[in-house]
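Can you give me the bound-state structure? Components:
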Amino acid sequence: MDTNTILIGLAGVLAAAAPVLFAVLGETITERAGIINLSMNGSILLSAMGGFAIAQLTGSLMLGFLGGMLIGALVALIVAFSSITLHQSQVAVGFVLALAGRDLSYFLGVPYMNSSGPVLQGLPIPFLKDIPVLGVLLFRQNLITYISYILIFLVWLWIFRTRPGLMLRGIGERPAAAYVRGANVNLMRYVYTIIGGAFIGLAGPAFTLNVKAGWMGTQTGLDGIGWIALSITIFGGWNPIRAAFGAYLFSFLQWLGLVLQSQLPGVPTQVLQVAPFPLMILTLLLVNISDAEWVARILATLPEGARRFTIKLLRTLRASPPASLGVPFESE
Amino acid sequence: MDVELRDIDKTFGAVHANVGINLKVPAGTIQGLLGENGAGKSTLMKILSGFIRADAGEILLDGHPVIIHSPADAIQHGVGMLHQDPLDIPPMRVIDNFILGRKGGLTIGHAAAERDYKRLAEEFSFSIDPDSYVDALTVGERQQLEILRLIWLGAKALIFDEPTTGISAAQKVKLFTALRLLASQGKTILFVSHKLEDVEGLCSRVAVLRQGILVGEAKQPYTTKNLVEMMFGKEISVGARDPCAGDGKTNLSLRDLSVEDYRLKVQNVSLEVCCGEVIGLAGMEGSGQGLFLRSVAGLVRTVGGHIFLNDTDLTGHSYHAFKRLGAAFLPAARLEEGLATGMSLTEHIVLAEEAHGFFIDWDKGRELTRKRIADFNIHGTPASPVESLSGGNQQRALLALLREPLSLLLLEHPTRGLDIESTIYIWSKLKDRCREGTCILFISSDLEEILQYSDRVLVFFSGKVTKPLESKSLSIEKLGELIGGKGWPESTSGKSK
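Here's the bound-state model for the whole set.
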């Protein structure tokens, strides 16, 4: 393989990661507020089918994407209403929605199966596209892929560099403390769950109108993506940039699997297909290694400078969930 | 700011928590609010700070009636509250906690906030690094952060709910200095406590609540007898110190015990404890006493030395081995570590009893529970979930769960957060155990408790441990100095052989 083929392949990795990325960013926002949106898998399939159908009927890609976001937001609204207002279990409701959404999408999607619809066209950015290496990699993509890069930084900026983002973290960690600091905890939980849901809903059309255009029912190849996004959210430690890294890593490993398959015919394809998952589990273990007592013991023996550095490093690596994740809040 | 409460009334179900309370606090005063657990102090302060709405009555600030809808609204009016368990966000940095809740633009504005933070911290002589994480701070430091934050938000009246619980003696001194400074600046301080000593030492005026009623007010100088009478309706005497009830037989023997975690090393502690003896472990929070106590329970692995219980070497064994030989450990965090939230008293009692057979005889369990409830004077029913009990009753429930007989009882802060009546009751039960031959090791930050109930005392200071000291030969002043790191002979350092 020559360099250019690899570069184009990697550019494909970035583009193919967009749906997972949207879902992961949406879930990250939602969980930062303390709500688990477990419906993702169903929500993505439903928005993938819905977005494709709308784009095909109206001939407008824009409406297709917006429709997908609306569907994601509506599913999220059900999660929010049942957990925040009705105090039902987020896990139970989310799980049922995940199953229902999937079956509903297969059922409602029958008329649109295997029909051709609009596809998002490439949009190379003038000048930037001619930068060696980076040009091919980053700037000869299409609009939705560019949006996916930008969203990573916007979400990160919002969570870690703005006042409302600081409050969002507070709401997820300790809602009572956020409440005494003036936050309308339950309203904000609604808002972030719905916005997160819209992001998740963007994942569907990003797939059916871009990555692998068209709706092919159970053959769409999208089932399971929601569960993967859920684990990447955890892997990402509720940090958009780390989560993005996880999404790209996952997409890269999948691509590698395809490439290696042709290079190593002796290895069963299943091995390469499932390889990303144990790798993710291993990384998760490494990330939380600082919780182990023996690590603390080793740390204590290090000289002061090295110890400080290592503690800081481990602290940055660590990923603990928002403390009130899944816990309802009452102001009294 | 002048704070006035008029005819405040609040009921929760069948409980009349506040009965027509009137209280006037002029600006610049440190007003004490005394009362035992459940007297209605917290309810009253939650009404003032916007957590709950009164059924009737009004709040006047500087003479103007106000309606406070929420804690954030209270701050707008200049009323801030520090909770017993500081309401901050532990995984965040100090400076982020400081900023959070302050109105401002879209950006956080760390630089400006940090300047203000440092200026305020200097004013109050607090020294907490704004970049450190709150979960690494002590409760005392978290309180200091909350004070700075509320002042920055413009609080003119500050409510402190049991602020001296769980903080070290040095931090208490710092807190009191800060409170006096605040009062001298014209701020109104409401100091809620059930600790007479603290209230007498700090407050210029005191109001006493009992069963939801404001039973009386007093001004400095106070007579303790009078305050106690108001609190309890009768005077309670704190009994004289009991001498060692032991028969001289050695029960627990520690030889050159060393234990460490990543912060602290406690080295070469040797101690012989006889049956019925009580050993108090004193020291600032985190000086090594907690680690030491847990190692004697088999909960933390020792790195050197031996532990003998009834002449059996238990070094390196787990808590279960200790338990089989009659040791028991009662943690300070009652609900988190000691009891199983969501389970009833009966379920606890059945779980704690020796198991017979596969199926549970609930009738027998309930009967046993009723007996224990009566024995230990627990205010609750066999079906009460443990979290519905008050702190004192939870502690009694924990004692009721202990098996008979015990040879060693290890307690962390056995009476923390309890009122005098409960404290005396708990200790009378513990003393009963001593008479049966149980030896007790307990941690407390209450010096009077240490001196009153221990036969001998070990003082901890950043991992160093004194030789066992006869409590008869100690005074509060002497103990306080040792805890603060003064008067340590070089040789008592754990490091010497």
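A couple of observations. Residues 7 and 133 of chain A are 7 Å apart (CA to CA). DSSP finds 15 helices and no strands in chain A.
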